[in-house]
Design brief:
The protein is α/β, with parallel strands linked by helices. About 30% of the residues lie in helices and about 25% in strands. The N terminus is likely disordered. It binds zinc ion.
Amino acid sequence: MKIGMKEEIETVDLSVDKRVLCEFRSNNGPLVVFMCGIHGNEPMSVLAIKEIAEFIQDNNIQLAGSMIGITGNIEALNKGERYIECDLNRIWTEVNMNFISNGSTLRNEKAEMKEIWSVLSKVLDERKKEDVVIFDLHTTSSPSVPFITINDTISNRCISKEYPLATVFGIEEYLSGPLLSYMNELGISAIGFEGGQHIDLGSFENHKAFIWLSLANQGLISADMLEVKAAFKRLNELSIDAHKFFEITHREEILDSDYFKMYDGFSNFQSIEKNVKMAIKNGIEIKSEWEDHIFMPLYQEKGDDAFFIIRRIPPFFLWLSRILRKYNFERIVLLLPGVSLYDKKKHILAVNNKVVKILRNDLFHLLGFRQKVHYTSSTTLYIRREVQ
Ligand SMILES: [Zn+2]
Protein backbone atom coordinates (compact mmCIF):
# COMPACT_ATOMS: atom_id res chain seq x y z
CA MET A 1 0.00 0.00 0.00
CA LYS A 2 1.35 3.40 -0.96
CA ILE A 3 -0.39 6.68 -0.42
CA GLY A 4 0.65 9.47 -2.75
CA MET A 5 0.21 13.09 -1.69
CA LYS A 6 -1.99 13.68 -4.73
CA GLU A 7 -4.51 11.02 -3.82
CA GLU A 8 -7.62 11.96 -1.95
CA ILE A 9 -7.72 10.48 1.55
CA GLU A 10 -11.29 9.29 0.92
CA THR A 11 -10.02 6.78 -1.63
CA VAL A 12 -7.77 5.04 0.90
CA ASP A 13 -9.02 1.81 2.48
CA LEU A 14 -9.08 2.46 6.22
CA SER A 15 -10.48 -0.93 7.27
CA VAL A 16 -8.41 -3.03 9.65
CA ASP A 17 -8.87 -6.56 10.97
CA LYS A 18 -5.52 -7.56 12.47
CA ARG A 19 -4.59 -6.99 16.11
CA VAL A 20 -0.89 -7.33 15.30
CA LEU A 21 -0.14 -4.99 12.39
CA CYS A 22 3.51 -5.95 12.09
CA GLU A 23 6.05 -7.95 14.02
CA PHE A 24 9.83 -8.11 13.57
CA ARG A 25 11.51 -10.20 16.25
CA SER A 26 15.14 -10.37 17.34
CA ASN A 27 16.64 -12.07 20.38
CA ASN A 28 18.85 -9.07 21.06
CA GLY A 29 18.38 -5.33 21.33
CA PRO A 30 15.43 -3.35 22.63
CA LEU A 31 11.73 -3.99 22.03
CA VAL A 32 9.84 -1.09 20.48
CA VAL A 33 6.03 -1.23 20.55
CA PHE A 34 3.83 1.06 18.46
CA MET A 35 0.21 1.29 19.61
CA CYS A 36 -1.89 2.54 16.68
CA GLY A 37 -5.48 3.76 16.62
CA ILE A 38 -6.45 3.31 20.27
CA HIS A 39 -9.01 5.95 19.27
CA GLY A 40 -11.08 4.75 16.32
CA ASN A 41 -11.29 8.15 14.59
CA GLU A 42 -7.47 8.28 14.39
CA PRO A 43 -6.49 5.85 11.59
CA MET A 44 -3.36 7.64 10.27
CA SER A 45 -0.92 5.76 12.53
CA VAL A 46 -2.37 2.42 11.37
CA LEU A 47 -1.68 3.36 7.73
CA ALA A 48 1.79 4.68 8.62
CA ILE A 49 2.96 1.58 10.47
CA LYS A 50 1.65 -0.68 7.67
CA GLU A 51 3.60 1.27 5.06
CA ILE A 52 6.82 1.29 7.10
CA ALA A 53 6.53 -2.44 7.85
CA GLU A 54 6.15 -3.09 4.10
CA PHE A 55 9.19 -0.93 3.37
CA ILE A 56 11.30 -2.78 5.96
CA GLN A 57 10.23 -6.12 4.53
CA ASP A 58 10.59 -5.17 0.83
CA ASN A 59 14.05 -3.71 1.39
CA ASN A 60 15.13 -6.51 3.71
CA ILE A 61 16.22 -4.07 6.42
CA GLN A 62 17.70 -5.94 9.40
CA LEU A 63 16.55 -4.39 12.67
CA ALA A 64 18.91 -4.44 15.67
CA GLY A 65 16.00 -5.20 17.99
CA SER A 66 12.32 -6.08 17.93
CA MET A 67 9.46 -3.98 16.61
CA ILE A 68 5.76 -4.69 16.97
CA GLY A 69 2.76 -2.65 15.81
CA ILE A 70 -0.51 -3.24 17.67
CA THR A 71 -3.97 -2.08 16.57
CA GLY A 72 -6.04 -0.28 19.21
CA ASN A 73 -9.82 -0.10 18.82
CA ILE A 74 -10.52 -2.31 15.77
CA GLU A 75 -14.32 -2.03 15.86
CA ALA A 76 -14.24 1.75 16.31
CA LEU A 77 -11.57 2.16 13.58
CA ASN A 78 -13.80 0.29 11.13
CA LYS A 79 -16.72 2.56 12.01
CA GLY A 80 -14.59 5.73 12.06
CA GLU A 81 -15.80 6.48 15.60
CA ARG A 82 -13.62 7.52 18.55
CA TYR A 83 -15.07 4.61 20.57
CA ILE A 84 -18.14 2.36 20.69
CA GLU A 85 -19.11 2.17 24.36
CA CYS A 86 -16.27 3.81 26.29
CA ASP A 87 -12.91 5.40 25.52
CA LEU A 88 -10.32 2.61 25.16
CA ASN A 89 -7.66 5.01 26.42
CA ARG A 90 -9.44 5.68 29.75
CA ILE A 91 -9.93 2.15 31.07
CA TRP A 92 -6.38 0.97 31.94
CA THR A 93 -6.94 0.62 35.68
CA GLU A 94 -6.33 -2.21 38.13
CA VAL A 95 -10.09 -2.68 38.60
CA ASN A 96 -10.56 -3.20 34.85
CA MET A 97 -7.48 -5.42 34.58
CA ASN A 98 -9.02 -7.71 37.20
CA PHE A 99 -12.38 -7.54 35.43
CA ILE A 100 -11.03 -8.57 32.01
CA SER A 101 -9.06 -11.45 33.49
CA ASN A 102 -11.87 -12.98 35.59
CA GLY A 103 -13.48 -14.85 32.70
CA SER A 104 -16.58 -12.66 32.25
CA THR A 105 -18.04 -12.30 28.77
CA LEU A 106 -16.61 -9.08 27.39
CA ARG A 107 -17.80 -6.82 24.61
CA ASN A 108 -16.69 -3.68 22.80
CA GLU A 109 -13.75 -1.85 24.42
CA LYS A 110 -13.29 -4.35 27.29
CA ALA A 111 -12.92 -7.15 24.71
CA GLU A 112 -10.45 -5.01 22.72
CA MET A 113 -8.53 -4.26 25.93
CA LYS A 114 -8.24 -7.96 26.76
CA GLU A 115 -6.87 -8.78 23.30
CA ILE A 116 -4.39 -5.90 23.40
CA TRP A 117 -3.21 -6.93 26.86
CA SER A 118 -2.74 -10.54 25.82
CA VAL A 119 -0.39 -9.40 22.99
CA LEU A 120 1.39 -6.81 25.14
CA SER A 121 1.84 -8.92 28.25
CA LYS A 122 3.29 -11.78 26.19
CA VAL A 123 6.01 -9.62 24.62
CA LEU A 124 6.66 -7.74 27.87
CA ASP A 125 7.24 -11.03 29.68
CA GLU A 126 10.12 -11.81 27.33
CA ARG A 127 12.06 -8.61 28.09
CA LYS A 128 13.54 -6.63 30.93
CA LYS A 129 11.41 -3.53 31.55
CA GLU A 130 14.29 -1.20 30.79
CA ASP A 131 14.66 -2.72 27.30
CA VAL A 132 11.09 -1.85 26.28
CA VAL A 133 9.64 1.42 24.96
CA ILE A 134 5.98 1.89 24.05
CA PHE A 135 4.92 4.61 21.62
CA ASP A 136 1.22 5.43 21.64
CA LEU A 137 0.25 7.20 18.38
CA HIS A 138 -2.59 9.69 18.18
CA THR A 139 -4.06 12.59 16.20
CA THR A 140 -6.11 15.61 17.30
CA SER A 141 -9.50 17.02 16.28
CA SER A 142 -8.06 20.45 15.40
CA PRO A 143 -5.07 21.22 13.16
CA SER A 144 -1.87 20.92 15.14
CA VAL A 145 1.88 20.80 14.86
CA PRO A 146 3.14 17.36 15.95
CA PHE A 147 4.13 17.04 19.61
CA ILE A 148 4.87 14.53 22.40
CA THR A 149 2.97 13.88 25.63
CA ILE A 150 4.55 12.06 28.58
CA ASN A 151 4.15 11.31 32.23
CA ASP A 152 7.05 13.21 33.74
CA THR A 153 9.55 10.49 34.57
CA ILE A 154 13.25 10.98 33.96
CA SER A 155 13.39 7.98 31.60
CA ASN A 156 10.45 9.31 29.53
CA ARG A 157 12.14 12.71 29.38
CA CYS A 158 15.40 11.14 28.13
CA ILE A 159 13.50 9.52 25.26
CA SER A 160 11.37 12.54 24.32
CA LYS A 161 14.23 15.06 24.28
CA GLU A 162 15.79 13.25 21.31
CA TYR A 163 12.98 14.45 19.01
CA PRO A 164 12.79 17.94 17.47
CA LEU A 165 9.34 18.36 19.05
CA ALA A 166 7.65 20.05 22.00
CA THR A 167 6.87 17.78 24.99
CA VAL A 168 3.85 18.26 27.24
CA PHE A 169 3.82 16.86 30.79
CA GLY A 170 0.97 16.15 33.09
CA ILE A 171 -2.00 15.28 30.90
CA GLU A 172 -2.42 12.02 32.84
CA GLU A 173 -3.21 13.96 36.00
CA TYR A 174 -6.47 15.00 34.37
CA LEU A 175 -7.32 11.64 32.80
CA SER A 176 -8.37 8.40 34.36
CA GLY A 177 -6.89 5.21 32.95
CA PRO A 178 -4.73 6.14 29.93
CA LEU A 179 -2.60 3.26 28.62
CA LEU A 180 0.65 5.23 28.99
CA SER A 181 0.14 5.80 32.73
CA TYR A 182 -0.60 2.13 33.28
CA MET A 183 2.62 1.19 31.47
CA ASN A 184 4.62 3.76 33.44
CA GLU A 185 3.26 2.34 36.68
CA LEU A 186 4.60 -1.04 35.56
CA GLY A 187 8.02 0.62 35.17
CA ILE A 188 7.99 0.74 31.36
CA SER A 189 8.88 3.87 29.39
CA ALA A 190 5.90 5.01 27.36
CA ILE A 191 5.63 8.06 25.12
CA GLY A 192 2.57 9.57 23.45
CA PHE A 193 2.84 11.14 19.98
CA GLU A 194 0.23 13.44 18.47
CA GLY A 195 0.80 13.62 14.73
CA GLY A 196 -1.62 16.34 13.59
CA GLN A 197 -5.29 16.41 12.59
CA HIS A 198 -7.30 13.17 12.38
CA ILE A 199 -7.93 12.58 8.67
CA ASP A 200 -5.03 14.34 7.03
CA LEU A 201 -2.21 13.22 4.77
CA GLY A 202 0.16 15.50 6.68
CA SER A 203 -0.55 13.50 9.88
CA PHE A 204 0.14 10.28 7.96
CA GLU A 205 3.55 11.66 6.89
CA ASN A 206 4.23 12.90 10.44
CA HIS A 207 3.52 9.46 11.87
CA LYS A 208 5.88 7.85 9.39
CA ALA A 209 8.56 10.40 10.32
CA PHE A 210 8.02 9.74 14.04
CA ILE A 211 8.22 5.96 13.55
CA TRP A 212 11.47 6.20 11.53
CA LEU A 213 13.03 8.51 14.12
CA SER A 214 11.89 6.27 16.98
CA LEU A 215 13.48 3.22 15.37
CA ALA A 216 16.74 5.17 14.95
CA ASN A 217 16.67 6.70 18.45
CA GLN A 218 16.18 3.25 19.98
CA GLY A 219 19.09 1.87 17.92
CA LEU A 220 17.09 -0.50 15.69
CA ILE A 221 18.25 1.22 12.49
CA SER A 222 21.09 3.55 11.57
CA ALA A 223 20.56 7.28 12.05
CA ASP A 224 22.34 7.68 8.69
CA MET A 225 19.46 6.14 6.73
CA LEU A 226 17.95 8.62 4.27
CA GLU A 227 14.46 7.95 5.70
CA VAL A 228 15.65 8.91 9.19
CA LYS A 229 17.34 12.10 8.02
CA ALA A 230 14.22 13.10 6.07
CA ALA A 231 12.08 12.30 9.12
CA PHE A 232 14.14 14.54 11.40
CA LYS A 233 14.07 17.35 8.83
CA ARG A 234 10.28 17.11 8.43
CA LEU A 235 9.47 17.18 12.15
CA ASN A 236 12.08 19.85 12.84
CA GLU A 237 10.64 22.15 10.18
CA LEU A 238 7.07 21.68 11.40
CA SER A 239 7.75 22.15 15.09
CA ILE A 240 7.70 25.70 16.47
CA ASP A 241 8.59 24.72 20.02
CA ALA A 242 11.10 21.94 19.38
CA HIS A 243 12.85 20.60 22.49
CA LYS A 244 10.73 22.77 24.81
CA PHE A 245 8.84 21.25 27.73
CA PHE A 246 5.37 22.39 28.84
CA GLU A 247 3.08 21.46 31.72
CA ILE A 248 -0.69 21.56 31.96
CA THR A 249 -2.01 24.11 34.42
CA HIS A 250 -5.76 23.97 33.67
CA ARG A 251 -8.29 21.56 32.18
CA GLU A 252 -11.72 22.74 31.09
CA GLU A 253 -13.94 19.72 31.63
CA ILE A 254 -17.20 18.90 29.81
CA LEU A 255 -19.86 16.69 31.37
CA ASP A 256 -22.24 14.58 29.26
CA SER A 257 -25.07 16.99 30.07
CA ASP A 258 -23.10 20.09 28.96
CA TYR A 259 -23.57 21.87 25.65
CA PHE A 260 -20.12 23.00 24.55
CA LYS A 261 -18.89 24.75 21.41
CA MET A 262 -15.36 25.97 20.89
CA TYR A 263 -15.09 29.17 18.85
CA ASP A 264 -13.22 28.82 15.56
CA GLY A 265 -9.61 29.84 15.19
CA PHE A 266 -7.81 28.16 18.10
CA SER A 267 -4.93 25.77 17.53
CA ASN A 268 -2.49 23.86 19.69
CA PHE A 269 0.25 25.84 21.46
CA GLN A 270 -1.30 29.11 20.33
CA SER A 271 -0.55 31.98 22.75
CA ILE A 272 -3.62 33.28 24.50
CA GLU A 273 -4.30 36.61 26.20
CA LYS A 274 -6.64 37.31 29.10
CA ASN A 275 -10.32 38.04 28.30
CA VAL A 276 -10.25 36.46 24.82
CA LYS A 277 -13.62 34.84 24.03
CA MET A 278 -12.93 31.11 23.72
CA ALA A 279 -16.13 29.04 23.73
CA ILE A 280 -19.76 28.69 24.77
CA LYS A 281 -20.69 26.28 27.57
CA ASN A 282 -24.36 25.88 28.47
CA GLY A 283 -25.14 29.30 27.02
CA ILE A 284 -22.39 31.05 28.96
CA GLU A 285 -19.37 32.47 27.17
CA ILE A 286 -15.99 31.30 28.45
CA LYS A 287 -13.39 34.06 28.46
CA SER A 288 -9.68 33.42 28.97
CA GLU A 289 -8.37 33.89 32.51
CA TRP A 290 -4.89 33.02 31.32
CA GLU A 291 -1.87 34.51 29.61
CA ASP A 292 -0.30 31.27 28.42
CA HIS A 293 -0.84 28.73 25.65
CA ILE A 294 -4.01 26.87 24.68
CA PHE A 295 -3.68 23.12 24.21
CA MET A 296 -5.95 20.59 22.47
CA PRO A 297 -9.07 22.70 21.88
CA LEU A 298 -12.03 20.38 21.17
CA TYR A 299 -13.43 20.49 17.65
CA GLN A 300 -15.18 17.09 17.61
CA GLU A 301 -18.40 15.76 19.11
CA LYS A 302 -17.09 13.11 21.49
CA GLY A 303 -14.67 13.93 24.29
CA ASP A 304 -14.77 15.39 27.77
CA ASP A 305 -11.85 17.80 27.61
CA ALA A 306 -12.91 21.18 26.19
CA PHE A 307 -9.35 22.53 26.18
CA PHE A 308 -6.26 22.71 28.34
CA ILE A 309 -3.96 25.60 29.28
CA ILE A 310 -0.20 24.91 29.29
CA ARG A 311 2.88 26.85 30.39
CA ARG A 312 6.50 26.41 29.46
CA ILE A 313 8.78 24.84 32.08
CA PRO A 314 12.07 26.77 32.37
CA PRO A 315 15.15 24.54 31.82
CA PHE A 316 16.30 25.37 35.38
CA PHE A 317 13.26 23.59 36.86
CA LEU A 318 13.82 20.57 34.63
CA TRP A 319 17.38 20.38 35.97
CA LEU A 320 16.30 20.99 39.58
CA SER A 321 13.67 18.27 39.50
CA ARG A 322 16.19 15.80 38.10
CA ILE A 323 18.56 16.53 40.98
CA LEU A 324 15.82 16.40 43.66
CA ARG A 325 14.60 13.05 42.37
CA LYS A 326 18.10 11.65 42.07
CA TYR A 327 18.71 12.34 45.77
CA ASN A 328 15.24 11.17 46.87
CA PHE A 329 14.26 14.54 48.26
CA GLU A 330 10.80 13.11 49.01
CA ARG A 331 12.25 11.79 52.29
CA ILE A 332 12.45 15.41 53.52
CA VAL A 333 8.83 16.08 52.48
CA LEU A 334 7.76 13.09 54.57
CA LEU A 335 9.03 14.90 57.67
CA LEU A 336 6.45 17.67 57.18
CA PRO A 337 3.24 17.60 59.24
CA GLY A 338 0.24 16.38 57.21
CA VAL A 339 2.36 14.27 54.83
CA SER A 340 2.47 10.50 55.32
CA LEU A 341 3.26 7.37 53.36
CA TYR A 342 -0.09 5.95 52.19
CA ASP A 343 1.30 2.97 50.26
CA LYS A 344 5.00 2.23 50.59
CA LYS A 345 5.15 -0.35 47.81
CA LYS A 346 3.44 1.86 45.25
CA HIS A 347 5.13 5.06 46.52
CA ILE A 348 1.88 6.88 47.27
CA LEU A 349 1.86 9.86 49.64
CA ALA A 350 -1.24 11.04 51.53
CA VAL A 351 -1.17 14.80 51.99
CA ASN A 352 -3.60 16.80 54.10
CA ASN A 353 -5.46 19.23 51.82
CA LYS A 354 -4.48 22.21 54.02
CA VAL A 355 -0.84 21.29 53.38
CA VAL A 356 -1.58 20.89 49.65
CA LYS A 357 -2.81 24.50 49.61
CA ILE A 358 0.48 25.69 51.13
CA LEU A 359 2.91 23.46 49.24
CA ARG A 360 0.86 23.38 45.99
CA ASN A 361 1.09 20.76 43.26
CA ASP A 362 4.28 22.30 41.87
CA LEU A 363 6.50 20.93 44.65
CA PHE A 364 5.14 17.41 44.22
CA HIS A 365 5.59 17.67 40.45
CA LEU A 366 9.22 18.68 40.96
CA LEU A 367 9.71 15.60 43.11
CA GLY A 368 8.20 13.38 40.43
CA PHE A 369 4.77 12.79 41.95
CA ARG A 370 1.41 13.23 40.26
CA GLN A 371 -1.93 13.83 41.90
CA LYS A 372 -4.19 10.77 41.86
CA VAL A 373 -7.50 11.45 40.19
CA HIS A 374 -9.51 10.18 43.17
CA TYR A 375 -9.03 11.57 46.67
CA THR A 376 -11.04 12.21 49.82
CA SER A 377 -12.33 15.59 51.03
CA SER A 378 -9.49 16.00 53.53
CA THR A 379 -6.61 14.22 51.81
CA THR A 380 -4.95 14.26 48.40
CA LEU A 381 -2.99 11.27 47.19
CA TYR A 382 0.20 11.67 45.19
CA ILE A 383 1.73 8.74 43.34
CA ARG A 384 5.37 8.65 42.32
CA ARG A 385 5.74 8.41 38.57
CA GLU A 386 9.14 6.76 38.62
CA VAL A 387 9.15 3.08 39.50
CA GLN A 388 12.54 2.14 40.93
ZN1 LIG B 1 -6.24 9.87 20.53
